[in-house]
What we know:
Oligomer: single chain
Strand content: 25-35%
Distance between the termini: 20 Å
Number of domains: 1
CATH architecture: Alpha-Beta Complex
Amino acid sequence: MRFYQPPGGPSTKKGAGCMIMARKTGRFLMCKRAVNTPYPLTWASFGGKSEGYESAEQTARREAFEETGHRIDGPVEHLFHFELSTFSFDTFIATVEEEFAPHLNGESEDASWMTLEEIPENVHDGLRAILEDKITVNRLIRHVESTSGRWCDFDRIFRKP
Length: 161
């Protein structure tokens, strides 16, 4: 688990999401954010703000369902924690057996299954933080390779800051 926390007190708003990977292909479902959302037209994983007293994992599961129409029933693995002065965000990896056609809500205008190497350059800042962290990228690669058997190319995934 990786943490980033700049100087200052703990954040007050929390959110979570997950990167959904299909075991059979080793590809991740990514969404292209809608024009009317923060970070418009950037690629991201699925997630959002916590409601009430939800745990980060509960938030990630709920947000994945709300944004894809697909319920994450299996185990999830914590991947990354990002902390700003006003907001903290936890990202999980959820593995599903096969790729599925998502039923997108208004927060996304497109979605695509892609390898880590195929993720475009125009990504949401939260996904960029993950792809700029060597340890987290290595964890993603190990997960893909051990779960799906698909080899990953670190140099094509890691985004140097």
